[in-house]
Write a structure and sequence with these properties.
The complex is a heterotrimer of chains A (100), B (310) and C (393). Chain A is built from 1 helix and 5 strands. Chain A is mainly β and 100 residues long. Chain A folds into 2 domains: 32 residues, no CATH class; 68 residues, Alpha-Beta Plaits, CATH 3.30.70.20. Chain C has a 6-stranded mixed sheet, sandwiched between helices. Chain C has a 5-stranded mixed sheet with strand order 4-5-7-6-13, with helices on both faces. The N and C termini of chain C lie far apart (54 Å). In chain C, helix 2 links the parallel strand 2 and strand 3. Chain C has 13 helices and 16 strands. The chains are: A mainly beta (100), B alpha/beta (310), C alpha/beta (393). Chains in contact: A-B, A-C, B-C. Chains B and C meet through strand 1, strand 2, strand 4, helix 4 and helix 6 of B and strand 3, helix 3, helix 5 and strand 9 of C.
Chain lengths: 100, 310, 393
């Protein structure tokens, strides 16, 4: 049975803690919002985007979703604003904006 | 093996966001691009040495891994992975498992070149069907940027600080890929984030789908430890390759293959000047060290060309 | 039908290892447990077992691979001694905290230095706080029987912890004794198939093992682990009851030998208990009410039960085959005294270090300990409570 990580909150009693701190299931970190860390924010300028997808593999936070071969807007719940995608974009379709 | 970039980018992610690596860290870039080489229908068990990567990607109860994952300790990712792979063979033999699983271990350079070296050598020699991926950021970043045997010569780290009597780390880095190649394993590849990840992807694919032990050495810059602005990472990787500091090569069944030869080999200072850890080398009294490093880079590059019969 | 044989302790354990149908055995040779991987790899070479043998490059990697294999869902075992167990030290804690029921055959040997290959308990005692179940044997028969019972205790859902099956280096591991083996299918049925509750190779969903845990989780994780260990007492007794049905041999948490009316009781574990039984018999003939409490399960420590069994004793001698350098007692001494204190009892307790590095333990030397107990009883003077037996000078 998959672990319901909502039950594994910081106030969990010892009886309810998963034995061995094992998590059954994958990808539970999606529930954790790292977007709050952002100092500067990348902005996707769709008009300029040629959908070359060169920004996708360089993102350390898997925060450029691709659906049906096309990138969507940033996953701001998780993007930490490192700016690597800006450097990777040959078409100036991503700009960094100061602040969150 | 063909590489259709757009098709690859369309594959489902096996490494999720929500991990606690620093903004701009190279390690998760390495991980994502290695895991993308897995066939969608194949399952995997990932082993991870204690490292920035481990403590940031499985902080209870949050795992960033869509595949099964085990962390054991700092120095034993290869041995742990070899145990998982042995269990797979045993359970498969008994008919308890049908699915195809692949086994990939990740470690930083500290956990791979140094404290985990014996464990890695043992697992490679025993011939387990696994891939060990070193994400090499050239120092013990998790404990605060101490030197490792992967740290480049003259880098300023917290245990090889540059000072009036020291130009930084005295020794040149250990050539781990060559050492593992000398184990006569099935596949060894050295790569980094260049060519829109094509080189990394193809090497990961070969490493995963060549039967037997394989080793990948991926240079994965650390903005904090190397002291550069995070968007600079791709430029730094490019310069590492163009200066021949970090050559792209592979060793397939004992045959050395050079994957990229710069048309104009750039001077090592082009790589050094991008990073704060080398800034002390640009003081007039330290210029001689750049020349020393250049000499070593040239020597090793020539050796590699010979091995690859270039 | 049991099979009568004459086997060394290592041969007996190797037989049990083959019979319990483990999936994977990573191991590294070290005297005096070296024969275990040797015997086992010959079983593999001759097709007598399905188990995959992994000849790792160190004990550290042996336990690391055990952890990977057991977490993956495979029944996993290994064997080691002395410095090998010490080299596993970090991994022992991980195996226990991950709740992985690995079985480890420990052939007890002195820890370096100075380096020595003979028997004492310093290796297992060094690992006593690692969270493993520890069971000790007096004879080859007990070592065999304990290994047959190991997985039933360790894998029990109320326990889920790794287990060390200990026997004395050379004394039992290389000493040939008469033994009754169980038939292969009897053991196979007794131990049963292993179906873990969660495992890395579970095709239904992935699993993640070995997280970084922040302070809000760590204490609760440790307490849960402790409860598993405490449960091992109850489970070991249940398993022993079932084991008696297939073997006719009886096991408890400890063995009481001529304890009914004993004034002077020796508490010890391992092969020297056999010598102690002879000593007790001899003294009984002389009219001295001597008795022995032989510990089988050292972790978890059956403190309440031991205190209860020691109720009638006037003087107790705790015998430690190790030096633990706390400067006032050895591990058995410390644990027995704590158990007595917790039970509100305050009998006179002497603590001896004996038999280090294979130093001979004779009836005469153990008789001298009973003599010391008698003197303490008669004079009321306890003197030095922490003593070395048969020390020159």
């Amino acid at each position: 049975m998959k672990t319901d990580i909502k039950t594994q909150h910081e106030g969990v009693k010892w009886q309810d803690l998963s034995p061995g701190c094992v998590i059954n299931g994958g990808g539970t970190a999606k529930e954790f919002n790292t977007g709050e860390w952002r100092v500067d924010t990348p902005v996707f300028i769709e008009d300029k985007c040629k959908q070359c997808l060169l920004c996708v593999p360089v993102c350390p936070d898997s925060s450029i979703p691709v659906v049906d071969g096309k990138r969507l807007d940033f996953d701001y719940d998780h993007c930490k604003g490192c700016g690597i995608c800006v450097a990777a974009c040959p078409f100036d379709a991503i700009e960094m904006r100061k602040g969150e | 093996m063909a590489y259709n970039f757009k098709e690859m980018m369309n594959k489902p992610e096996r490494f999720t966001p929500g991990h606690r690596m620093c903004a701009g860290c190279g390690a998760p870039i390495a991980v994502r691009n290695v895991l993308r080489a897995l066939k969608e229908e194949d399952k995997a068990v990932i082993t991870c040495a204690t490292s920035c990567l481990e403590v940031s990607t499985f902080m209870y109860p949050y795992t960033s891994w869509e595949d099964s994952f085990i962390h054991n300790a700092f120095e034993n990712a290869a041995a742990t992975c070899s145990g998982v792979e042995s269990a797979y063979r045993a359970l498969k033999k008994k008919g308890k498992i049908d699915d195809t699983y692949k086994f990939i271990a990740f470690g930083g350079d500290g956990g791979t070149y140094d404290i985990g070296f014996q464990s890695l050598s043992g697992a490679m020699e025993r011939g387990h069907d696994m891939v060990y991926v070193c994400y090499d950021n050239g120092a013990y970043m998790n404990t605060g940027i101490q030197r490792s045997s992967a740290t480049p010569q003259f880098a300023d780290t917290t245990t090889t600080p540059s000072g009036t009597q020291s130009p930084g780390k005295p020794q040149y880095r250990k050539d781990l890929a060559a050492i593992i190649a000398e184990h006569h394993v099935a596949y060894v590849g050295q790569t980094t984030f260049v060519q829109n990840m094509k080189d990394l992807h193809l090497k990961a694919e070969k490493a995963i789908y060549t039967e037997g032990p394989a080793f990948l050495n991926v240079m994965a810059p650390c903005p904090r430890g190397w002291r550069y602005d995070s968007p600079e990472i791709l430029n730094i990787c490019k310069l590492a390759v163009e200066t021949c500091y970090w050559p792209l090569f592979e060793v397939i069944d004992g045959k050395w293959v050079l994957n990229y030869k710069p048309k104009n080999k750039l001077p090592i200072e082009d790589f050094l000047k991008t990073q704060g850890r080398f800034s002390h080398l640009f003081k007039p009294e330290n210029e001689k060290y750049i020349a020393i490093m250049q000499e070593e880079v040239d020597k090793r590059w020539e050796e590699l060309l010979k091995k690859c019969e270039e | 039908m049991s099979i009568r044989e004459r086997l060394s302790g290592n041969e007996a354990i190797a037989t049990a290892m083959r019979q319990v149908c483990a999936d994977v055995m990573p191991a590294y040779p070290i005297t005096p447990s070296t024969e275990l991987p040797q015997y086992f790899s010959s079983f593999v070479a001759n097709g007598e077992t399905d188990t995959i043998f992994v000849p790792v490059e160190s004990e550290h990697s042996a336990m690391s691979a055990c952890i990977g294999s057991e977490a993956a869902g495979a029944r996993t075992m290994s064997a080691t001694s002395s410095c090998g167990l010490a080299f596993m030290w970090e991994m022992l804690y991980v195996a226990a905290s991950n709740r992985l029921p690995i079985a480890l055959a420990v052939v007890n040997r002195a820890l370096s230095g100075p380096i020595n290959i003979n028997c004492d308990h310093s290796d297992a005692m060094g690992a006593r706080d690692a969270g493993w179940i520890q069971i000790f044997a007096e004879t080859n028969q007990e070592a065999y029987d304990n290994f047959v019972q190991a997985y039933r205790i360790a894998e029990h859902p109320d326990v889920k912890l790794p287990i060390m099956i200990c026997q004395d280096g050379f004394i039992t591991s290389h000493g040939v004794q008469n033994i009754e083996l169980l038939e292969d299918d009897v053991v196979k049925n007794f131990v049963g198939e292993y179906y873990p509750e969660s495992w890395l190779l579970n095709p239904e969903h992935p699993e993640a093992v070995g997280p970084y845990t922040n302070p809000p989780y760590y204490m609760e994780a440790k307490y849960g682990q402790l409860q598993g260990l405490i449960n091992a007492k109850k489970v070991a007794l249940e398993v022993a009851k079932e084991f008696k049905e297939i073997s006719g041999r009886e096991y408890g948490l400890f063995e009481e030998y001529r304890m009914e009316d004993a004034d002077y009781v020796m508490v010890m574990m391992g092969s020297a208990a056999g010598t102690c039984k002879d000593t007790v018999d001899m003294l009984r003939e002389e009219g001295i009410k001597a008795g022995l409490l032989k510990i089988r399960m050292f972790r978890p420590f059956p403190g309440e039960e031991i205190a209860e069994a020691l109720k009638g004793a006037k003087v107790i001698a705790c015998m430690d085959r190790t030096e633990s350098y706390n400067s006032q007692d050895g591990p058995i001494g410390a644990d027995v005294k704590a158990a007595l204190f917790n039970a509100g009892m305050a009998p006179k307790v002497l603590n001896y270090v004996y038999g280090l590095a294979g130093r001979d333990v004779t009836v005469e030397s153990l008789a001298s300990v009973f003599e010391d107990m008698k003197t303490v009883d008669e004079t009321g003077e306890i003197g030095d409570t922490y003593r070395y037996l048969d020390l020159r000078g």
